[in-house]
Design goal:
alpha/beta; eight-stranded parallel beta barrel; 11 helices; 15% strand; binds phosphoenolpyruvate
Amino acid sequence: MRQPLIAGNWKMHGSRTDNAALIGGIRGKVDDAPGVELLVCPPSVFLAQVGSEIGSAGIALGAQNVSEYATGAYTGEVSATMLAEMGCHYVLVGHSERRSLFAELNEQVAAKFAAAVEQGLRPVLCVGETLGQRQEGETDAVVLRQLDAVIDLVGPNGLRNAVIAYEPVWAIGTGETATPKQAQEVHAVLRQRLVEVDAELGAAMRILYGGSMKPANAAGLLSQPDIDGGLIGGASLDADQFMAIAAAASEQLKG
Ligand code: PEP
């Protein structure tokens, strides 16, 4: 059984005051989602603060980005070692905003993934197609290229502790959500590729859905056989909404 993971990508939002209130709200509701792993990914400057607000509440900490380089003259970059030292267990790699706004290519995303694995961080590899690519019937090819770039670099062993997030670009921050059927189809394609590489890896990999997931649509998405949780943007900034999604994931465990 794959443990559901509900992850919050705070993007470039937050302040010391807002972070304390948000973690306080999540802490107050962790009992609403038994059996679900919770993860928050604040901006890197707030990792220390958020880590200390989390305390022993059993909420994992993650970063939103990592350098592909280990150390050196890379102004503005943050290494995987530094993230691990700040208490991160996870890091997002290849989020569509990094790909589209900061020109990250598949090879660079794969290098970031490898840097994270090297330091014992669990990468959350984000993949997804644009609206144009979906309309051209290229969805499967696009997400498989994004996944294959990582498989080619790190091999099946490098993926063992990873998570994949399928995030159709047209659904991120737009209020548009993939239907459960649309999402399930792509999740199944991704899992099938992993199974081809290594059956055990494919069966164990958690594949999250991301793209305007909200309390109102979470249950439908999370009920799909290959959807193992969510990567939540906007709704992760509201403790009630975030934990309502986590509670929906917990409900799925009851069968
Ligand atoms: C995201 O940023 O990963 C995301 C899914 O955002 P939203 O939930 O706001 O669409």
